[in-house]
């Protein structure tokens, strides 16, 4: 045992009237919701990077967090893993997620970095064998180091493309070895700052071929998990090629990957794209590419991705409603891609941030499940589109434009607008919140 989380108890469900801070009020892992345990619905994951690698900086200031495992040695990397699994045990978290740079120190060469990664994968494998928590997904950090300043797969330098390929291959191997259920690609630098020095077609073609190579390698090694792309519109790149779910789907279709790749959707990224979280989830479900989510929130008065823990169950309930409508997760889960504030210095702050986030999501899930089970909202939805089930309406879709136009002339159609009942449905939704 390390000393970092000493005197912090394991978090247990104590109900809404719990008086202790260190208790779940709404998240009861064994509570059955719509025929499934709550833990199996939510599939919570802890983000290794924000919880254990982030030093507390922001765009205007540097490190505020002092952690005993901060440093570049393998001994400190192992200490970080020890602390991480202690926190996973305290929370009872079923999953975690990592970038390669989170779990191993950067080497002077690729070969050294890979040796460090391989050694830490073995160490994490031992941890997973002795603890409940398993790997939800792995990914590669191809945005922090200066080599990635002009992108990875989209870099104008083919040597960087090769380095990216080697990096992803190593991390897919690591993810598979640890039993990860997904592999994520977040293209933080896969975009451009100015068209003055950018060949858009070349960069898109290279990105598409890179993703095809990832999928080909997945099948070659027999990886059974999902390949996920995480959309984001901007920050750090001014124009990113994976702007939102719809853009990603168009990209996948262009390169014949729409049946091979799904999306990992982040709430903060959805907002930066001008959408709501539920819109992006619903869009992904409609297009058949919903995979997983990164759960967080933005400060709506700030212009960047602040990655705060969720604390508004009413807001998250709409997102979980769309997840339940889509049939829930398969290999995906609810990853807390969220960090404590840079003024929150204590070990207790890190634990309680997750406790609050898990409770918020659990409460949201129960609201969403109650609404779905009642069928009230879906009954309104079905009623609104019911006339499309008639033979005349279906014939318009199978026939030509002339057939639809002929109906207007033959039947003297003069459509009468029908209320969308938005306010009534918002009131209905609030009944369940």
Describe it for me?
With 433 residues, the protein is of the alpha/beta class. It folds into 2 domains: 27-374, Alpha-Beta Barrel (TIM Barrel), CATH 3.20.20; 379-432, no CATH class. It is 47% helix and 11% strand. It has helices at 38-42, 48-53, 74-91, 100-103, 110-130, 158-177, 200-221, 245-254, 267-272, 277-287, 313-325, 347-374, 376-385, 391-398, 401-411, 422-432, and strands at 12-13, 23-24, 32-33, 36-37, 44-47, 95-99, 134-139, 182-185, 191-192, 226-229, 239-240, 261-266, 290-294, 334-336. It has an 8-stranded parallel beta barrel with strand order 5-6-7-8-10-12-13-14, surrounded by 5 helices. Helix 6 links the parallel strand 7 and strand 8. Helix 10 runs parallel beside helix 11. The longest helix has 28 residues, at 347-374. The mean pLDDT is 96.
What's the pLDDT, averaged over the residues? Answer: 96
CATH class of the largest domain, named Alpha Beta
Structural class: alpha/beta
Portion of residues in helices?
40-55%
Q: Quick one: biggest sheet?
A: 8 strands, parallel, barrel
Looking at this structure, what is the CATH superfamily of the largest domain? Divalent-metal-dependent TIM barrel enzymes
Low-confidence stretches: none
- Helix/strand order, N-terminal first: EEEEHEHHEHHEHEEHEEHEHHEHEHHHHH
Question: What's the N-to-C terminus distance?
Answer: 41 Å
The total of beta strands comes to 14
CATH topology of the largest domain: TIM Barrel
Query: What is the level-2 CATH architecture name of the largest domain?
Result: Alpha-Beta Barrel
Strand residues, percent: 5-15%
